[in-house]
Specification:
Keywords: Dioxygenase, Hydrolase, Oxidoreductase. Residues 243-289 form the Chitin-binding type-3 domain. The chain is globular. The protein is built from two helices and 16 strands. The chain is 7% helix and 25% strand. The strands form five sheets. Strands 1, 4, 7, 8 and 9 form a five-stranded mixed β-sheet that branches. Strands 3-2-5-6 form a four-stranded antiparallel β-sheet, with no helix packed on it. The protein has two domains: 43-228, Protocatechuate 3,4-Dioxygenase, subunit A (Sandwich); 241-288, Ribbon (Seminal Fluid Protein  PDC-109 (Domain B)), CATH 2.10.10. The longest helix is centred in the first third of the chain and has 11 residues, at 29-39.
């Protein structure tokens, strides 16, 4: 599918998200960052041009949460986010499949809580345009999800996305710590001419990008709006244990059926279960019914 319109507001004559936020709440953080970029000023932590979140670990101060970058569909993140999102992407860290051309790109980083503690088992669901600026809406080309490892790290192998009308170069991602809300955001590339005209662009979401042979390497650390613990986000245990046949530490295969708190679920992808991956929390792994 070839996009012929931007996947968000600001492509027409209406007011931009920054203008709306400035009118409703005063000058927004995004507006200040854009002004700083225009003036050539150094951007603070998490812009991707100066420092990564890991650089602040051990300094004793809380990390600012990674901002949302909404495509105009409102806050219902468990439904469509932008016209090109598709649920149930395959579990994989390499999005480059047969026939995919473009500049090789790896994106790596960590997922932290506000208290600078890395979070394991975080779901990261990526999707992007191909080298020509097209999104695959019939299959799952350049789409995939993965989970952060025991140290909170992730790594994505893909290509540099192409451009299409109304948008600068970007990669979409949904990030969800176990049993926590979904952060829906986008990653941007430094030095792109369209960064100055894309109304969705946020300099706080810039990656660090450098050349790597014939390709590029990008780095970005997500900071979720939760407090992390070595085993994941800190949540009080439930007052009553959940009922059902689903259990942690079990190797499930596609098609397996379980119950959880009175609801039946079917396994979508093979995995070994862990705390936080209860069926209602990870629709990429379990489908109700």
């Amino acid at each position: 599918m070839t996009p012929n319109a931007p996947d968000g507001p600001g492509s027409g004559s209406g007011s931009s998200p920054d203008a709306d936020s400035a009118a409703g709440r005063g000058i927004s953080r995004k507006s200040l960052l854009k002004a700083a970029v225009a003036a050539g000023a150094a951007i603070p932590l998490l812009t991707g041009t100066v420092a990564l979140a890991r650089d602040a670990v051990g300094q004793g101060s809380a990390l600012p949460a990674t901002p949302d970058c909404d495509d105009g569909d409102g806050p219902t993140h468990d439904q469509i986010e932008g016209p090109y999102f598709k649920p149930n992407s395959p579990l994989r860290t390499n999005l480059v499949t047969s026939g995919i051309n473009g500049t090789p790109l790896t994106v790596s980083g960590y997922v932290f809580g506000r208290n600078c503690v890395p979070i394991s088992g975080v779901l990261l669901d990526f999707w992007q345009a191909d080298n020509a600026g097209n999104y695959d809406m019939s299959g799952f080309t350049l789409r995939g999800h993965q989970f952060s490892d025991a140290k909170g790290a992730f790594s994505l192998t893909t290509i540099v996305p192409g451009l299409y009308p109304g948008r600068t170069r970007h990669i979409h991602v949904k990030v969800q710590a176990p049993n926590q809300p979904v952060l829906t955001t986008q990653l941007y590339f430094p030095g792109e001419p369209r960064n100055n005209t894309d109304t969705l662009y946020d300099p706080a979401l810039l990656m660090n990008v450098r050349g790597a042979g014939s390709g590029k390497e990008g780095t970005f650390d997500f900071v979720l709006n939760v407090n992390g613990t070595p085993g994941g986000p800190s949540d009080p245990p439930p007052t009553d244990p959940p009922s059902g046949t689903w259990a942690t530490g079990h190797s499930y295969t596609a098609g397996d059926r379980v119950t959880y708190n009175g609801t039946s679920y079917t396994c979508v992808q093979a995995h070994t279960s862990m705390a936080g991956w209860e069926p209602p929390n990870v629709p990429a792994l379990w489908r109700a019914g």
